[in-house]
C-alpha cells in the first residue's frame, strides 16, 4: 500500500513505553505526523526511562494511577505496547476505563483480536499491528489487520500512523504470525549476520571501524539494489558470483551449513513462537 493518508490522529496514548513504543513515537514526531503534545507514554515503574522520553521527545509521560486514568481516558487512540506476558494485567485494568469511540492499536506479538477483546471485556475497535524497530527512522515494515468494529476513519488513522514510519501491508489476521517471522523480528536476523561479518573482518585485519562501515554499506547497498532495480535477489546474487571465484567459495560454505533451510527454520520458529505466546495468554483467560 503506497498512497499516503492524512487522517487526523488526535491524541495517542502508548500503554507501555519500551523500545517499540519509542521507535514509533520517534518516527511520528520526526515525520510531523503527530506533535509531541498529542502523545503520552505510560509504563509500570521506570521513572528514569520516562524522564528520558519526555526530555528526548517532549511527550507527556507517567506511571501513577492518576496518570494512567488521565492519559488512557483522554486518548482517542490507545497503543498497547507491553509484552505479551503483561497483557492480561494491563488489559483487565484498561477495559473498564475505555471510552466510547476510542480505538485500540495493538503492537503485541501473538495475541489475537478476539483475545484482546476478551481481556478488555468489550468489543472495542482494534487494529492489530506488527511493526519493527526500523520505524524509528521511517523505514519500518508493518503488518495490519482490523477488527470488524473499526470504521473507515479508524482504518485511515492507523494507516496514516504506520505509513508515516515506513511501509504497510494489510493482511488477514491469520498471517500475522508469519509476518512476525519475516519482518517483525527480521531486523534481528540481519543484525546477527552483520555482527558476524564485522567480527570476521576484524579477525582478517580490518579495523573495527572499517569492518563496521564496509559491512553496513554492503547491507544498505544490497537492500537498495533490490529496491531500485526490482530484480530478483537470486539474479543479483548470480551477478556477483564468478564461476569458481571467491563468492562461489563463500556461498558453498553457507550451503554446506544448510544456510537456506536454517534461515527458513528460524522464520518458521518465530511464527510458531508468536502463536505460542498468544495461546499462553488465551489459555489463561
Ligand atoms: N521490540 C520489537 O522489535 C517489537 C516489539 N513488538 C511488540 O511490542 C511490544 C513491546 O515490546 P518492546 O517495546 O520490545 O518491550 P519493552 O519491554 O521494551 O517495553 C514494554 C513496556 O511495557 C510496560 N508495561 C508492562 N506492563 C505494563 C502495565 N501494566 N502498565 C503500564 N506499562 C506496562 C513496561 O513498563 C515497558 O515500558 C511487545 O508486545 C512486542 O511483542 C512488536 C514488533 C517489534
Ligand atoms: O521478540 C519479540 O517477541 C518481539 C516481536 C517481534 C519483535 N520482537
Which oligomeric state applies? Answer: single chain
User: How can the largest sheet be summarized?
Assistant: 8 strands, mixed
What best-fitting shape do the alpha-carbon axes yield?
A: elongated
- CATH topology name of the largest domain: Rossmann fold
For CATH, the homologous superfamily of the largest domain is named as NAD(P)-binding Rossmann-like Domain
Helix count from the secondary structure assignment: 12
Structural description of this entry:
- The protein has 285 residues and is an alpha/beta fold.
- The chain folds into 2 domains: 12-176, Rossmann fold (3-Layer(aba) Sandwich), CATH 3.40.50; 186-271, ProC C-terminal domain-like (ProC C-terminal domain-like fold).
- It is built from 12 helices and 8 strands.
- It has an 8-stranded mixed sheet with strand order 3-2-1-4-5-6-7-8, with helices on both faces.
- Strand 4 (77-80), helix 4 (84-94) and strand 5 form a beta-alpha-beta unit.
- The chain is elongated and about 65 Å long.
- The two termini are 35 Å apart.
Amino acid at each position: 500500500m503506497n498512497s499516503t493518508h492524512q487522517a487526523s490522529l488526535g491524541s495517542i496514548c502508548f500503554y507501555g513505553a519500551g523500545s517499540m513504543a519509542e521507535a514509533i513515537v520517534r518516527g511520528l514526531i520526526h515525520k510531523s505526523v503527530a506533535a509531541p503534545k498529542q502523545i503520552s507514554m505510560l509504563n509500570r515503574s521506570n521513572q528514569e526511562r520516562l524522564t528520558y522520553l519526555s526530555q528526548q521527545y517532549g511527550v507527556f509521560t507517567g506511571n501513577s494511577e492518576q496518570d494512567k486514568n488521565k492519559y488512557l481516558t483522554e486518548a482517542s487512540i490507545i497503543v498497547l505496547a507491553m509484552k505479551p506476558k503483561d497483557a492480561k494485567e494491563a488489559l483487565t485494568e484498561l477495559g473498564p476505563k475505555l471510552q466510547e469511540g476510542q480505538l485500540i492499536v495493538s503492537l503485541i506479538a501473538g495475541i489475537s483480536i478476539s483475545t484482546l477483546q476478551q481481556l478488555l471485556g468489550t468489543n472495542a475497535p482494534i487494529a492489530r499491528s506488527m511493526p519493527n524497530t526500523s520505524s524509528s527512522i521511517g523505514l519500518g515494515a508493518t503488518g495490519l489487520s482490523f477488527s470488524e468494529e473499526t470504521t473507515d476513519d479508524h482504518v485511515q488513522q492507523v494507516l496514516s500512523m504506520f505509513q508515516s514510519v515506513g511501509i504497510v501491508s494489510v493482511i488477514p489476521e491469520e498471517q500475522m504470525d508469519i509476518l512476525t517471522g519475516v519482518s517483525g523480528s527480521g531486523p534481528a536476523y540481519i543484525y546477527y549476520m552483520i555482527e558476524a561479518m564485522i567480527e570476521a573482518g576484524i579477525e582478517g585485519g580490518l579495523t573495527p571501524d572499517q569492518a563496521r562501515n564496509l559491512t553496513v554499506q554492503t547491507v544498505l547497498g544490497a537492500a537498495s539494489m533490490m529496491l531500485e532495480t526490482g530484480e530478483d535477489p537470486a539474479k543479483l546474487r548470480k551477478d556477483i558470483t564468478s564461476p569458481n571465484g571467491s563468492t562461489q567459495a563463500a556461498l558453498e560454505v553457507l550451503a554446506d551449513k544448510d544456510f537456506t533451510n536454517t534461515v527458513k527454520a528460524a522464520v518458521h520458529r518465530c511464527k510458531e513462537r508468536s502463536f505460542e505466546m498468544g495461546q499462553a495468554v488465551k489459555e489463561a483467560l
